[in-house]
Write a structure and sequence with these properties.
By secondary structure, the protein is mainly beta. The protein is about 0% helix and about 50% strand. The chain has strands at about 1-5, 10-15, 20-25, 35-40, 45-50, 60, 70, 80-85, 90-100, 115, 120-125. Strands 2, 4, 5, 6, 9, 10 and 11 form a 7-stranded mixed β-sheet that branches. Strands 1-3-8-7 form a 4-stranded antiparallel β-sheet, with no helix packed on it. β4 and β5 (about 45-50) form a beta hairpin. The chain is globular and about 40 Å long.
């Protein structure tokens, strides 16, 4: 069993920064892909960023590119999402997810991930 726990969410003002963490535990996956998704009320779960654990290659949605940075710790047990220049449109529940290595085209689709955290709320006020 793979367990993911998000933390770091909160209420901030537009233009502020916030860092989310995703701690992993339990059984590890072989050469996993990991990602951040977000879901606003009444909307679908959308891709934010992803990282291939092997090699550390990163991928971003156009809406966050240049503002958000995905990273990991040295032990490769925790994933981070540094969010800068936050906008009200970034308000959502943020989830971390993981799966075995996938095709690049599959990284952006939530349905392709088998393991999810519980989510952490990020609220950006104007």
């Amino acid at each position: 069993q793979v367990q993911l726990v998000e933390s770091g969410g909160g209420v901030v003002q537009a233009g502020d920064s916030l860092r989310l963490s995703c701690a992993t535990s339990g059984r590890t996956l072989s050469n996993p892909d990991m990602a951040w998704f977000r879901q606003a009320p009444g909307k679908e779960r959308d891709f934010v960023a992803a990282m291939r654990w092997s090699g550390g290659h990163t991928y971003y949605s156009d809406s966050v590119k240049g503002r958000f940075t995905i990273s990991r710790d040295n032990a490769k047990t925790t994933m981070y999402l540094q969010m800068n220049s936050l906008k009200t449109e970034d308000t959502a529940v943020y989830y971390c997810a993981t799966n075995g290595r996938m095709a690049l085209s599959a990284l952006r689709n939530a349905a392709n991930y088998g393991y999810w955290g519980q989510g952490t709320q990020v609220t950006v006020s104007s």
